[in-house]
Amino acid sequence: MLYEKDTGTTVRESHTITVLVDNEAGVLARVIGLFSGRGYNIESLTVAEVDPAAHTSRITIVTSGTPQVIEQIEAQLARLVPVHKVNNWTSQEGGIEREMALVKVAGSGDAPMKALRLADTFRARTVDTTQSSFVFEITGAPAKINAFIEELRPLGLIDVSRTGVAAMSRGPEAM
Amino acid sequence: MMSETKEKIAASAAETMPLETMTGAQMVIRALKDQGVSHIFGYPGGAVLPIYDALFEAEGIEHVLVRHEQGAAHAAEGYARSTGKPGVLLVTSGPGATNAVTGLTDALMDSIPIVMLSGQVPTHLIGTDAFQECDTVGITRPCTKNNWLVKHVNDLSRTIHEAFEIATTGRPGPVVVDIPKDIQFQSGSYVGPRGLHHRTYRPRTDPDAAAITQAVAMMAVAKRPVFYTGGGIINSGPQASQLLRELVDLTGFPVTSTLMGLGAFPASRPEWLGMLGMHGTWEANHAMHDCDLMICLGARFDDRVTGRIAAFSPGSKKIHLDIDPSQINKVVRTDLGIIADAGKAIAAMIAAWKSGGHTKPDISGWWDQINRWRGRKSLAFKHSDTLIKPQYAIDRLYQLTRGRDVYVTTEVGQHQMWAAQRFHFEQPNRWMTSGGLGTMGYGLPAAVGVQVAHPDALVIDIAGEASVQMTMQEMSTAMQYELPIKIFILNNEYMGMVRQWQELLHGGRYSHSYSEALPDFVKMAEAFGCLGLRAEKPAELDASILEMINTRRPVLFDCRVDPMENIFPMIPSGAAHNEMILGDLGEAEVSAAGKTMV
Ligand SMILES: Cc1ncc(C[n+]2csc(CCOP(=O)(O)OP(=O)(O)O)c2C)c(N)n1
Ligand SMILES: [Mg+2]
After folding, report:
1. Who among A5, A23, A80 is closest to B310 (CB)?
2. Which whole-number Å values give the CA distances from B270 to B245, B249, B254, B555, in the listed order?
3. Is the peptide bond before B314 cis (omega within 30 degrees of 0)?
4. What is the CATH number of the domain that holds A115?
């Protein structure tokens, strides 16, 4: 990008951004279209209505880019008409980021038991058990989930479903 | 879900205003009237028939039937740009809506407030691939500021009012309200625009006082300042242009402008440097490159303006005023961003300048330098007695129309740039051109829109023979509504701008840029019932231009010009402002990286 030449900053950083929007038709498409149309990256995306009375939904996006691109992403999101508020949890202190994943391992021999012990160390819950498989539920920071998944890979990992990140500030204030 | 809230809001509004019951189609007409709309540009079809039916009886709204929906959108743009009011278009579903997409995108790029109302298949058929169904809100989402599909009749009037609010405030832009046919037939409650405000949308227009103070402090100590102004000043309203003059009176700083901002500052004033950018003047671009303070007012550092970013004005501090926060630091790092309406911010600068006790700084050394650049006479050209030079044609057109109530639109290409360089403006809202999107075919329908708004003015589309063929059919609209637009074609028998790039960048291989099989424009004019004129020699030009001006009906003027003339100065793609080439300096040198740029 032209921009990166301009400032010499080309280091890509991962950022978690939350967008509070009016829950109206097409708003998610507008947000996602902004990312694809301007060539921004989406690493994960979480959306749900959070206040039925006020008709607001909260979209949390993990994206990556140079600091200039991240600044543009925030500004471009903020100017969308149905957007109430944009928050970048990565560039401010004390954001809480959590994600949930369901992870399935299957196999024979001692691998499933090793997986079970590993799940215990990661404080994952076992939500389904058969003769030859387990489904674990794990909640935590994305990095913790990444680590869990990587360690399960040689132990018969066959399926992963992640929710994407939900984020919130620490302390008494709302977003 | 949305409709529930809206009904609640509508209900609370009802406590103060009596609600009237009417059909959706009637609401459309009523809402337009309540928004002060007097003209709409449109084209009927199955999915908008109820609205057309309501229009049949409506008084106070004039409908202009275009010949293609792209024409409706550009006409609405011309109307908006020349009046400061929103332009409105009405189209049917499917092809009606898709035909308008170019105009919507054009309006988005150039921040022009237009409101498109489109018909849609009835709600129960949406999603079934019904006849003339298309996902209008999906297709137009990336080319509108906002858009809506109305699914409940009681949301309709409120949505239209919201659409007008969003189109015309903040950074203006196009909006679309898509109205299914069953909604047009249903009865519901009409809500007026009074007291309605969007829930979330609050564009910031008042400048931050501290930022203004800082800006003025920077201006007071600048040695080589330049105002770089843009379309934002025009969008802010005529007041902003007046204030700009005042700010220049106070500071004595030189002024240049983008293509979109022409007219905001009078071209006759000594501080005027001419347009900047790819085909800007020598003095404007050098001033941009060498300045120590750049004060950008309502412009957005477009690549046509900056040239190579890494080499863009390397030694300057930059102040950037824009109503759209996302423009600050988008392409160029600025030292001070001011988010505000241009007029309000300039007014605040004037107040701060005065209250700070500043006087005109001594920048005579800078002016000496600027005058040396001016001495280069970068717009000069070699006159010919046998061939009409396009520059000469524009000069004569300008001279012979001076003192009249003139509005100029253009198509896209060399003729557009010659017009921008040589047709001078003293006032805003007089110059309508497709800047951001560069839409060939814009000028003729835009002229239709301008003439509708200004029936007695002299409205001229400065055209190219290739561009004009893209929306030629709107000649028929001009005839139908007795709109005496003048289409002044600089006919160089080439897509001249393409040919010039092929000459400079592709070894003179003129691949598919010759305007083969051109129609006889004079006969064509006659076929439409317009006056057709042709000039082939410099000596016959003046008389024909005068005949054109004095004709009270549409005129198509085939001005045969030198086919090989190039537009200069030129900053080749990927070059810096101070690497401009002039017509007399021979071959351009374009870097490999530059060749890949557009
Ligand atoms: C709709 C559209 N298609 C293609 C282009 C690319 N283009 C830019 S200028 C140009 C040539 C325009 O030719 P003409 O109207 O004769 O103007 P001239 O440059 O000769 O003055 C073309 C094809 C464009 N700008 N718009
Ligand atoms: Mg041409």
Report:
1. A5
2. 12, 11, 8, 35
3. no
4. 3.30.70.1150
DSSP label at B460?
E
Q: pTM for the complete prediction? A: 0.95
A82 and A8 in a common domain:
yes
Question: What would the mean pLDDT of B282-288 be, rounded to a whole number?
Answer: 98
Nearest atom, ligand 1, residue B415 CA: 21
Stated as kind and residue range, the H or E segment containing B318 is strand B317-322
Q: What pairing do the DSSP bridges indicate for beta strands A95-106 and A157-169?
A: antiparallel
Ligand 1 mean position, distance from CA B494 (Å): 9
Task: Record the tokens describing residue B528, joined without a space.
Answer: 């439409």
Chain A contact for B140 (CB, 8 A cutoff)? no
Would the CB atoms of A79 and B326 count as touching at under 8 Å? yes
Domain identity same for A78 and A150: no
Measure the CA–CA gap between B225 and B460, rounded to whole angstroms: 35
Q: How many degrees, rounded to 5, is the angle at CA B333 between CA B328 and CA B339?
A: 20
Q: Which domain holds residue A114?
A: 97-165
Element (H, E) at B415: helix B414-422
Nearest to B524 by CA among B571, B491, B550: B491
Residue located via tokens 């879900």? B1
Contact B205, B323 (CB under 8 A): yes
- Name residue A45's amino acid: L
pLDDT per residue over B206-233, tens digit each? 999 999 999 999 999 999 999 999 999 9
Q: Which of A88, A107, A132 is the last residue of a domain?
A: A88
Give B364's DSSP letter. Answer: H
- Hey, of B178, B201, B303, B333, which one would you mutate to test binding to chain A, going by the most A CBs within 10 A of its CB? B201
- Residue B222: other Cβ atoms inside 10 A: 21
pLDDT band at B19 (very low <50, low <70, confident <90, very high): confident
Residue B51 confidence (pLDDT) above 50: yes
Report the atom number in ligand 1 closest to the C-alpha of B464.
15
